[in-house]
Write a structure and sequence with these properties.
Length: 295
């Protein structure tokens, strides 16, 4: 594999925040890469630096030191012009845990998508409307739902809108920051299935940020495990989760309850449609804490 095959190259990345006269080192010299055609998971407990890394990947947080290259573009240099920002938008798009925060609550789904398409050069009205229909079909939003505003949609439907909006830009990479964490388990499964379907259709790559090892296990090929801003372990997801060499990864994995209590059939349904990259049942790996809440 050559450097050209790498969508993401992060080297010695460091981020220090200054708060109340004190330095907070959110990321201590992280290095990792993501190859084209592979999904990357970033896991770790709350405060381990996952979202800070995501923001530096997007170029919206300035690195204190180190390099971040996405498709060859140096993301540590601010995008100053509108053209540079549009080019960057085609590299990475983000889907957050709470789409309410990123969607305009007064804008219908169709008008939100129309605006994004217009900004990104789809100027002919007929082409825009055709693309809106295509995007909504892709993410499973009906013609009626297209004319609704976010407040009249369910959490899962809002997340579909957020995914459609990201896809409207045709990005190389979608960064999903805890994108299914707030959803009920059956809806989580639907969104995970959707993400896998979308990937088959569009070839988009995912960076999946999550505290949930089952979600990461199902959707990613490689994983980075973070603790207190440091990468403690990284490698092929199935190997890292199946046979962790780091004590913290083992604790993370083992802290999730055993399989006995899980909702019958839910995980299998996800695995069947998404296609398990890590077989949790046979490896006896963790099941997400989110599943536990549905007991
Ligand atoms: N803008 C900021 N100013 C000061 N400190 C910050 C800022 N953003 C993050 N931090 C600190 O950096 C550390 C890493 O935070 P970060 O949000 O990246 O962690 P995380 O792993 O994504 O956590 P979570 O899963 O809870 O979102 C934390 O100690 C956090 O308080």
């Amino acid at each position: 594999m050559t450097e050209n095959d790498m969508l993401i190259e992060v080297r010695d990345l460091r981020k220090v925040f200054r708060r109340g006269g004190r330095d907070i080192v959110a990321v201590h010299g992280a290095s990792f890469s993501m190859a084209s055609g592979r999904n990357l998971g970033i896991v770790g407990e709350s405060g381990s630096g996952k979202s800070t890394i995501a923001r530096m990947l997007m170029g919206v947080e300035k690195a204190t030191a180190g390099t971040v290259s996405v498709c060859g573009e140096d993301m540590t240099i601010p995008a100053r012009s509108a053209a540079a920002r549009r080019r960057r938008a085609k590299l990475t798009q983000m889907v957050y845990q709470d789409p309410f925060g990123s969607l305009d609550s007064r804008q219908t789904v169709a008008s939100c998508l129309r605006e994004v398409l217009r900004i990104h050069g789809v100027t002919a009205a007929a082409a825009r409307e055709a693309r809106i229909a295509e995007l909504c079909d892709l993410v499973g939003l009906s013609a009626v739902q297209r004319e609704r505003t976010p407040r009249d949609l369910s959490g899962g439907q809002r997340q579909r809108v957020a995914i459609a909006r990201a896809l409207a830009v045709q990005p190389e990479i979608i960064v999903l920051d805890e994108a299914v964490a707030a959803l009920d388990i059956s809806i989580q499964a639907q969104i995970l299935n959707l993400l896998a379907d979308v990937q088959r259709e569009t070839g988009t790559n995912y960076v999946l940020i999550s505290h949930d090892l089952a979600v990461v296990g199902h959707l990613t090929d490689d994983v980075v495990v973070m603790r207190h801003g440091r990468i403690v372990e990284q490698g092929v997801t199935a190997e890292v989760l199946g046979n962790p060499t780091d004590e913290y990864t083992r604790i993370l994995r083992d802290s999730v309850p055993s399989l006995d209590w899980r909702q019958p059939g839910v995980l299998e349904a996800v695995a069947e449609r998404v296609g398990p990259r890590t077989n949790f049942a046979t490896r006896n790996i963790s099941v997400p804490s989110t599943l536990e809440r549905t007991r």
